[in-house]
């Protein structure tokens, strides 16, 4: 009994001390951010080099060119990198036992190929470490609207974006103003428009004959199936000219993510089906490789899924949710999808072909920066390359 009491007291003391430490650090951070006695010259110089940024969290005054910037979500890192800005800290979609991303190309799927810094690991995007943020002392914090927290702005100026109502093009303009990268943003958007126009032209004949596309998210055990009503891939396919297959009795609005059974899925009439799947567990140390082939085999063994036109014509495709489902988002995600789509959709029986990583080359050409150590990595296969599956092509 006494030992149990001691253990409980020790736990309470540790929790209490942790709270005290965070509070003290926050107070110190707030006090150190306020000048003791600003003179007229300081005020004048600040007013010249300061700008007010309107964002999803309100307004934030940013002065000068931020140097030490942290991203609390993959979508923010994606836009930072597209603007040729390297992170000092980063919170990924998952929680990894890493102090620092010292080998980002292996530790950060897709986006790590463009990271030349070694950002500090800030933990999970759903619960970024305030203690680590305080110790890092960033000049600027970039977060999502749903991450809004008064403690963040007490640590450093904070800019938030909303990806539920705004496009990445809208949001990247906010970040460009924040990061003093206004000159870069027009190049990024123009490059995307050109790439989109090229793919739209290539896929126009297919859009005419096979316009109805069903996007679903499905885990490896196939006991979670969701019809995708929104997201990067859905929006991109509609911009190309495809029609999204949706449920008749479920209204399309932000936040709607209808879940269905295999029986319901088999009754939906689609010309093309794109299945987004993911790794159930990844520790950030092992090779990132989504088992698309394994899910394809499970799909092939389920007769309920074989009556659709998409299956009979070999137009069921399996892709990585991390790239296609909106986890990384932004220019880089769209570039990845635009590169894969013609190869994926125009060669249904050759879904195992290896598309060149054009997105990487686009960014290198755009900023004239070599993000890779060797040529093979520039032309490397995108991790979790897509597969097609189905019957004989008619």
UniProtKB/TrEMBL annotation:
Is Acyltransferase set as a keyword in this record? Answer: no
Say if the entry is tagged with keyword Transferase: no
Q: Which residues cross the membrane?
A: none
Q: Gene3D superfamilies in the record, alphabetically?
A: Nitrogenase molybdenum iron protein domain
Question: Which GO BP terms apply?
Answer: iron coordination entity transport
Family named by the database record: Belongs to the bacterial solute-binding protein 8 family.
Name this protein carries in UniProt = Iron-siderophore ABC transporter substrate-binding protein
Organism, per UniProt?
Answer: Nostoc edaphicum CCNP1411
């Amino acid at each position: 009994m006494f030992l149990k009491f001691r253990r409980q007291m020790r736990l309470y003391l540790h929790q209490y001390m942790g709270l005290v430490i965070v509070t003290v650090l926050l107070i110190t951070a707030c006090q150190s951010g306020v000048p003791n006695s600003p003179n007229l010259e300081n005020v004048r110089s600040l007013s010249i080099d300061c700008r007010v940024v309107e964002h999803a969290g309100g307004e934030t005054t940013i002065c000068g060119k931020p140097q030490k910037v942290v991203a609390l979500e993959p979508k923010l890192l994606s836009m930072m990198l597209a603007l040729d800005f390297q992170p000092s800290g980063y919170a990924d979609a998952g929680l990894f036992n890493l102090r620092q991303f010292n080998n980002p190309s292996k530790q950060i799927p897709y986006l790590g190929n463009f990271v030349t810094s070694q950002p500090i690991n800030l933990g999970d995007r759903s619960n970024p470490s305030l203690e680590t943020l305080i110790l890092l002392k960033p000049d600027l914090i970039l977060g999502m609207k749903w991450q809004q927290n008064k403690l963040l702005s007490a640590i450093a100026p904070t800019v938030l974006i909303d990806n539920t109502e705004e496009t990445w093009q809208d949001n990247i303009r906010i970040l460009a103003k924040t990061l003093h990268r206004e000159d870069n943003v027009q190049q990024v958007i123009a490059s995307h428009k050109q790439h989109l126009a090229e793919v739209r032209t290539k896929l126009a004949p297919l859009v005419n004959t096979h316009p109805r596309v069903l996007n679903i998210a499905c885990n490896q055990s196939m006991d979670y199936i969701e019809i995708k009503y929104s997201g990067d891939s859905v929006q991109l396919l509609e911009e190309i000219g495809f029609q999204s297959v949706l449920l008749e009795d479920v209204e399309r609005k932000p936040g709607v993510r209808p879940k269905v059974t295999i029986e319901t899925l088999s009754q939906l009439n689609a010309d093309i089906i794109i299945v987004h799947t993911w790794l159930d567990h990844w520790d950030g140390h092992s090779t990132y490789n989504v088992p698309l082939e394994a899910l394809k085999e499970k799909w092939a063994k389920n007769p309920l899924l074989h009556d659709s036109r998409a299956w009979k014509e070999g137009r069921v495709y399996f892709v990585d949710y991390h790239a296609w489902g909106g986890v990384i988002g932004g220019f880089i995600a769209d570039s990845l999808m635009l590169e894969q789509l013609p190869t994926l959709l125009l060669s249904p029986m050759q879904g195992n072909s290896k598309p060149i990583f054009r997105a990487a080359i686009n960014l290198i050409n755009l900023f004239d920066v070599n993000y890779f150590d060797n040529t093979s990595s520039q032309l490397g296969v995108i991790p979790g390359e897509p597969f097609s599956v189905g019957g004989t092509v008619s």
